[in-house]
Structure formats: structure tokens, C-alpha cells
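Lecture 7 notes: from sequence to structure.
We start with the chain below.
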Amino acid sequence: MFDLADELGIVYDTPTTGADIVHARGRYATNKDEFADLYPGLVYDAAKPDVEGQLLDELVNAPERAKVDQHPNFVAYATATVGTAGVEFLHDMSRFRGDYELPIDARSYIEFLEEDLTIGPETSYPKGGLSVFPKRLAEEAQGAGARIFLGEPVAAIAQHGGGYALQTSERNVEAEYVVITATRNRPASGVVTA
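Predicted C-alpha cells for the same chain:
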């Protein structure tokens, strides 16, 4: 992700941080390990620090990862890997709780997590937020001659001459290349070339 940020000229901020005060299950603490006893069935090595890190490492390195595509989403994979108590602990300790609530693609999230864990503990954020990535990608594509039509469902794609003819809800478009993307639940993805 940092390579893409560099390529797109996206600048990261690294804010100075103090101690995080976490509130979970009626307790406040600055050390996340102090919450482990509130999660019955949580599996971790009490002789080692950083319960959260142990669980995240397990998500990335567990044998279950070989079956990651068999899980409908990240939460299902995480539950199979670190158990319900592990998922609840990670949810409550995370600043990004939506990661443990939304139906995120398991493989994509584990690949992201693996990279995130190799970067280290320093937190950094792209100036302008994460939405700066698709905005800059769109700017780069448009600068190279691409046309982007948002909010126009494509009704038909047909080969036409050396390229393609597309019919959207708003217009007819001719293009040499068409990029098709979809979600996991709609797995038609790729680049169509003439």
C-alpha cells in the first residue's frame, strides 16, 4: 500500500499518540492485556505479552489460512481460527471495530493484515483519508485518457470493431478496453481486451 501511495503521490501522516484508554465490558485500562480475563474461552499464552498481537499472528499464520476461501467472510474465518472469544476480544480492542462487524472478504483482509503486521506498530494515515486512493487512481486513469462513468449500470457489452460498445442507463460508449470489477458475491472481475 505504501508503494501505491508513493506512486500516486499520497502523503502519510504519523500522528503522535499517547496511551490509548480502552473501555470494554465495563472496564477501563491502557493495557489491552488487562481485558483478557473478561473473555471466557480466550486462547492465548498468558506467559507472553500482547494478547492482541498473539491473536492477530494466529489469524495470519494458522493452518486454517489454507482454507480461507471456504469462509464466507473475515469474521467467519476469524471465528474458525481464534474462536468466538478471540473475535470478541479483537473487536473490542480494535479502533476499527467495523472490521469485525461487516462481511469483509476473508482472503483480502488476511492479506491486508499480513502486510499491516509487517509494517510495525507505527500508525500512519493517508492525508485526506483512505478515500484519497480511489480518487488519485481515478485522476491518474483520466489523465491517461480513461473515461469514468459512475452510477450508470451497464446494460450491455458487445464487441465492436477493435474494441467494445457499452450501453449504460445514460449513454452508449465505445472503448478499446473495459475494466470490470465486482465483489466476492459477484465474481465477474477482470480486464476485457479486444
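Points to note: Helices lie at 2-8, 51-61, 74-93, 106-119, 132-143. The radius of gyration is 22 Å.
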